């Protein structure tokens, strides 16, 4: 049986980040288990037209390996190449085992080790480790979120989910209907509009869609006069600060934020184009995730008459029509794209046991936003909803390294977060969003006090990871 000090599950951006931190800062043996045949995670899975980042790459990129492409908002293929180049540059790729899917993990309090059941191309195998890192993200790679769409089974045209986009799908000169209003739908619309006859985005309720520069004017000037490393570090700090400032403004002055957001939207739409009902959300900015549109390409497609947005509920779908509630308007698409969200899944679907007792992760609380209540020697990497995912994964990776060093130094063989149910804490969501797929999902919870509060901002969480309290509510057992 193979044995490692640390096993990281997932070779996406979180797994590569964790692998680098463990390799750079410790002398631990480690491996990365990847269920698929390639690294990249999200950026290897999704192939739909225009797949791109929804965050700027200066904060989304690894802090130890600067993003040097001139684009701040980049396409999926470029991001995957960047992740691959990073893994190769630091030798992390040599630690990846592909086609290794974690099926279950069982902690033994007697031996103080995890035993992992893994499916591989060569059959089943077992791996032992002292510390487990779950870096698989939070959604199901094999199944999208199931939502009820009345009559969808009657439709005789093509029905496509973005997560499983057919490479040979021909939408040239076709009428395409996108059901949904999240980041995927906002990305698809302008890219499909380049070749289709018309694209309609059908939403039950509107979302905030804000234009961002793909190549900022400040970046152009800095690249001209400053060394590349200086440019990256300055832009990274500025984007960190500005994203925090915008979020703080939205949370503190929601009415003013909404007014400002809608003014920007109005400036992007054709003259005298009505804001309501299609672009005036019922909630305030950042109560749900704000969608980005690089250089306003979403609104450009509308201005050019290649796309439209309709706000209504679906009454029924026939063989060739989509009938809407409360209106006589009928949509006649050739292709329907169901961009209705992701299905939440933790640990890549693997079952987690402690002394042969299965743990329901969604019933548990996150300690320091990293370790799971009642589960020893394990961490879960969850990023931010209101900032780049990588920021959260990097703060988590710093915490993991600190915990590993503490355990070595003090002879600790088992570290278990214990939630005090008598302390009167209230549950809080780990991702503070009202999005449908988040509310329908089964994520762990957080508390409202001490080491159980949710993550807040990268700089604060990075400080906590490096210098904060990592003993309160943590039950420690020492080497026998």
UniProtKB/TrEMBL annotation:
Transmembrane residue ranges: 230-250
Keyword Cytoplasm: no
Keywords: FAD, Flavoprotein, Membrane, Monooxygenase, NADP, Oxidoreductase, Transmembrane, Transmembrane helix
GO MF term list: monooxygenase activity
Heme found in the keyword field: no
Cofactor(s) required for function per UniProt: FAD
InterPro entries membership: FAD-binding_MO (IPR051820), FAD/NAD-bd_sf (IPR036188)
PANTHER family for this protein: MONOOXYGENASE, PUTATIVE (AFU_ORTHOLOGUE AFUA_8G02570)-RELATED
Record-given protein name: FAD-containing monooxygenase
């Amino acid at each position: 049986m193979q044995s490692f000090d640390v096993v990281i599950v997932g070779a996406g951006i979180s797994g590569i980040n964790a692998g680098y931190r463990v390799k750079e800062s410790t002398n631990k043996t480690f491996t990365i288990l990847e269920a698929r045949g390639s690294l990249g995670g999200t950026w290897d899975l999704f192939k739909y037209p225009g797949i791109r980042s929804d965050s700027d790459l200066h904060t989304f990129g690894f802090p130890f390996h600067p993003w040097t492409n001139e684009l701040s908002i980049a396409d999926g293929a470029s991001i995957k190449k960047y992740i691959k180049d990073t893994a190769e540059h630091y030798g992390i790729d040599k630690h990846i085992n592909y086609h290794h899917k974690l099926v279950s993990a069982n902690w033994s309090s007697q031996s103080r080790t995890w035993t992992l059941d893994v499916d591989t191309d060569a059959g089943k195998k077992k791996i032992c480790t002292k510390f487990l890192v779950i870096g698989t993200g939070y959604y199901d790679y094999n199944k999208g979120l199931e939502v009820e769409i009345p009559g969808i089974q009657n439709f005789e045209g093509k029905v496509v989910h973005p997560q499983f986009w057919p490479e040979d799908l021909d939408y040239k000169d076709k009428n395409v209907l996108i059901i949904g209003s999240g980041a995927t739908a906002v990305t698809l619309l302008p890219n499909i509009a380049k070749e289709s006859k018309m694209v309609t985005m059908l939403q039950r309720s509107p979302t905030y869609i804000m234009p961002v520069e793909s190549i900022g004017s400040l970046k152009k000037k800095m690249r001209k006069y400053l060394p590349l490393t200086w440019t990256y570090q300055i832009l990274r700090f500025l984007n960190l600060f500005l994203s925090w400032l915008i979020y703080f403004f939205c949370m503190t002055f929601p009415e003013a934020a909404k007014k400002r957001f809608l003014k920007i939207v109005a400036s992007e739409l054709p003259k005298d184009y009505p804001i309501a009902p299609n672009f005036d959300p019922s909630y305030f900015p950042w109560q749900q995730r704000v969608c980005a549109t690089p250089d306003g390409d979403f609104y450009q497609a509308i201005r050019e008459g290649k796309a439209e947005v309709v706000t209504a509920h679906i009454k029924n779908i026939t063989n060739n029509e989509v009938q809407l509630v409360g209106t006589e308007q009928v949509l006649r698409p050739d292709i329907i794209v169901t961009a209705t969200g992701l299905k939440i899944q933790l640990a890549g679907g693997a079952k987690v046991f402690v002394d042969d007792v299965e743990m329901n992760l969604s019933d548990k609380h996150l300690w320091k936003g990293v370790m799971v209540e009642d589960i020893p020697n394990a961490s879960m990497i969850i990023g931010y909803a209101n900032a780049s995912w990588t920021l959260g994964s990097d703060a988590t990776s710093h915490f993991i390294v600190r915990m590993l060093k503490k355990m070595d130094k003090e002879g600790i063989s088992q570290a278990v977060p214990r939630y005090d149910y008598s302390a009167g804490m209230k549950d809080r969501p780990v991702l503070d969003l009202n999005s449908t797929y988040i509310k329908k999902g089964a994520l762990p919870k957080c508390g409202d006090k001490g080491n159980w509060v949710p993550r807040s901002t990268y700089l604060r969480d990075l400080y906590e990871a490096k210098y904060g309290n990592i003993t309160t509510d943590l039950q420690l057992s020492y080497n026998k």
